[in-house]
Amino acid sequence: MPPKIEADALISLWFRTPHPYKAIIHAPQFQHEYRQFWRSPTSAPVMWLGVLYGMFGMASLFKIRALRNPNTPEVRATIRNADLYQELAASAAVLGNYMKPKTYTLECLILHAGGSMNNSHNDGWLLMGIIFRLALRMGYHRDPSHYSNISVLAGEMRRRVWYLLYMFDTLGSFQLGLPAMLRAVQSDTKPPYNLFDQDFSIHSETLPPQRPIEQLTPSAYGASKTRLVQVFALAADMSHATIPPSYAEVMELDAKLEATKASIPPGLRFRDLELCLTEDPESLMCRFGLDLTYLKAKTVLHRRFMVASASQAAVTYSRNSCISSAMRTLEHHRTVYRASRPGGQLESVSWYMCFMGTYDFLLASIIICLELARQLNEQPDPETDKIATREDMITALEASKKFGRKRGGRSRIRQTRPDDRKCRRGRDQKGMQSNDDHAGEDTDGQGHRYCSSGSASNRFYTDTGSRRVEDNVVRPTCEQ
């Protein structure tokens, strides 16, 4: 256990840093329990210690991501501490017998999985599978109102946990090309209320009325993203269906997607950064996250029709929607890259922006490559040219590729990024010149590397290995 002054700094950093895990920890209640812990450390429940160590581990990673020079003794010591805290979180889960879940079991495992995903998405996905099963065993798929023994505070936090797991399951499974686990579950859990943590407590007998949709509470972003993810899940099912859906079904879901986008609160709707110069980075990050989710759903829904002949007028809308969404996603890549540079609007959240959009940028690149390859064998579609010319697509691809290179290091994403040489072949045949003017600079003149989407995992942690819950059990300093 670190000294209290260091622990206080890590906990404060965890709550101040934008990330999706904050929603599952009720800040005022945790503050109360944290004070009690330091008054009597030996009386703290083991699972609560697991949550604490998980927060320490994630906060240590946040500290490193904010630094530009990873080759200092202080950074290496912080990496070792982050690794140790993750081991201690896993140890607490084992010592607390996570297979017989109790209070804070899911939160402990979720935070441990969140830290482990920096090293291996595959191992993180396997751990999330255990978490999903435990959530079902604990009845999280049923609304807390069915259980009289669950307090108002615990019930609302269960809703937040369930919808966070649903999003992780849907998006993470698609990212790995694996079937989701929770979508087929019959669930009646209501969405979390649009409330601040200070609006309810352990003493609340009922939840207060929800705040207006215009008030952006911590749950507002999650609620909006959940609605988009639910439509995305249907689009993914259609994309993978063994029996192709009818075009009428596709267009029906497209209309539902547009309606869901229209339901996003005004404060979370995407606007160009030049119109948001006075807004905080976390709000901008949320807007990018929602728009990228919408664009990904649009792309996946209409992806099937990219292989259809351009002469099929019935699917022109689908092809154009797919290309338009992909080009807009790559434009977001450019914007995020530039705004993440020193002094940019997204500098303070650059690490999360890189993590959040990496696979979306990769998917968009693949879509544009498919269209360029198709154009080599068919006459260009005049309708497509209205959205993006061949030159526009190639420029966007080259810029995105250059942004990925500037991440530095060798990453798993870069190794799987599609080779666009075949796409450029058509350009070379026409004698077109490469245009890198929009790709930005490699450094700021002082050797500082800028953020890009080169990898969803931080390259400074690749040598630490991924730890499963059962591995390397280390007994916590304080246990129940």
Automatic annotation (TrEMBL):
Segments of this protein annotated with the region Disordered: 402-480
CDD domains: fungal_TF_MHR
Skewed-composition ranges (Basic and acidic residues): 416-447
Protein name as catalogued: Xylanolytic transcriptional activator regulatory domain-containing protein
Organism taxonomic ancestry: Eukaryota, Fungi, Dikarya, Ascomycota, Pezizomycotina
BP GO terms, sorted: DNA-templated transcription
Start and end residues of each Xylanolytic transcriptional activator regulatory domain: 124-198
GO cellular component assignments: nucleus
Keywords recorded for this protein, A-Z: Nucleus
Bias (Polar residues): 452-464
Keyword Nucleus: yes
Biased composition (Basic residues): 402-415
Subcellular location: Nucleus
Chief location bin: nucleus
